[in-house]
């Protein structure tokens, strides 16, 4: 099939490389506001270069991958759907929840599929955890712990436009918790602080946060995030039930050092970046998108799914700033 790519920054170029390696993809058509980025992709992957998103959509593409700046997501999603082209869009749907809700309303009644990029849904460990929960082998759940620790903070310009650590980083934990447990979050309480880069504090954000989420069945989920984890990129989840407990991410590349006598785990080189940790998941995610394009499956992560994770991020942001518990119902009401 013929796939368009809008945006060729770090993640867009990574997606181009992944798509170029899929047997089901025969050609790529790419566009980026920076001509050099599009030219580099064309030379590296044999892609065709278009001078605008409109030109990509008019180039006979079967599907389009949106990896452009967040501010452009709503218009590009709607333009692709209007053209009848299935869409894969990196998270978030939009800069704000209000804009995201407007996108959802505009898509009502349309039958063109839209998939939002939450790659942990395609990681083998997270998928196995979901299967274990859904099979009932853990029994009723009582505790979930989800962790995302970055090895170093992103640049100041990125932080200033990210919407905050809950909207940018923790949202992956929030989506994973919903997806693995099959439950919704009813209330949150979040805390955070800054002990690292001054520009994060100056942007009104936190570099290290913790959030306690109460799920709709009473399960307690604890989410831990930081921009400062010098040992590497650490993504884990623990799921504890009344009959058994399991973990995602306890493998030899875990960036954590045991000080127990005689213990050599973990023995491998630590993960150092999200693309390193989730290379296989990204490939599976885009393979799933080609199946969506072919009509072989529905979207595995819809706009509605993305907005649900976004509401949790909104509630945590409000909780952090106001030092109080916040219900999801409260932020939905605005």
From TrEMBL:
Pfam families: GFO_IDH_MocA, GFO_IDH_MocA_C3
EC number: 1.1.1.18
Domain of life: Bacteria
Sorted UniProt keywords: Oxidoreductase
Span of domain Gfo/Idh/MocA-like oxidoreductase N-terminal: 1-118
Domain named GFO/IDH/MocA-like oxidoreductase: residues: 126-244
Gene Ontology MF terms: inositol 2-dehydrogenase (NAD+) activity; nucleotide binding
UniProt similarity note: Belongs to the Gfo/Idh/MocA family.
InterPro entries xrefs: Gfo/Idh/MocA-like_OxRdtase_N (IPR000683), GFO_IDH_MocA-like_dom (IPR055170), NAD(P)-bd_dom_sf (IPR036291)
Official protein name in the record: Myo-inositol 2-dehydrogenase 1
Organism: Streptomyces lividans 1326
């Amino acid at each position: 099939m013929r796939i368009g790519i809008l945006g060729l920054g770090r993640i867009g170029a990574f997606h181009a490389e992944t798509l170029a390696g899929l047997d089901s993809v025969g050609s790529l058509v790419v566009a980026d506001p920076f001509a050099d980025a599009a030219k580099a992709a064309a030379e590296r992957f044999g892609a065709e270069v278009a001078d605008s998103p409109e030109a990509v959509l008019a180039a006979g593409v079967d599907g389009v991958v949106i990896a452009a700046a967040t501010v452009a997501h709503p218009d590009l999603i709607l333009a692709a759907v209007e053209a009848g082209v299935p869409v894969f869009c990196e998270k978030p749907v939009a800069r704000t929840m209000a804009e995201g809700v407007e996108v959802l309303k505009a898509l009502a009644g349309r039958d063109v599929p839209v998939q939002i990029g939450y790659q942990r849904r395609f990681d083998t460990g997270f998928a196995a955890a979901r299967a274990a929960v859904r099979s009932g082998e853990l029994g009723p759940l009582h505790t979930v712990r989800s962790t995302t620790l970055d090895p170093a903070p992103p640049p100041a310009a990125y932080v200033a436009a990210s919407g905050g650590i809950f909207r940018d980083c923790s949202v992956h934990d929030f989506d994973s918790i919903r997806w693995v447990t099959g439950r919704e979050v009813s209330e949150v309480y979040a805390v955070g602080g800054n002990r690292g880069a001054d520009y994060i504090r100056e942007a009104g954000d936190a570099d290290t946060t913790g959030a306690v989420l109460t799920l709709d069945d009473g399960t307690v989920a604890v989410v831990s995030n930081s921009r400062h984890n010098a040992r590497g990129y650490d993504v884990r989840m623990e799921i504890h039930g009344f009959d058994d407990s399991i973990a995602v991410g306890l493998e030899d590349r875990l960036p954590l050092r045991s000080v127990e006598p005689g213990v050599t785990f973990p023995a491998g080189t630590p993960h150092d970046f999200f693309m390193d940790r989730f290379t296989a998941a990204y490939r599976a995610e885009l393979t799933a998108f080609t199946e969506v394009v072919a009509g072989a499956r529905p979207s595995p992560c819809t706009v509605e799914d993305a907005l649900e994770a976004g509401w949790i991020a909104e509630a945590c942001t409000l909780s952090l700033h106001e030092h109080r518990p916040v219900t999801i119902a409260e932020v939905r009401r605005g």
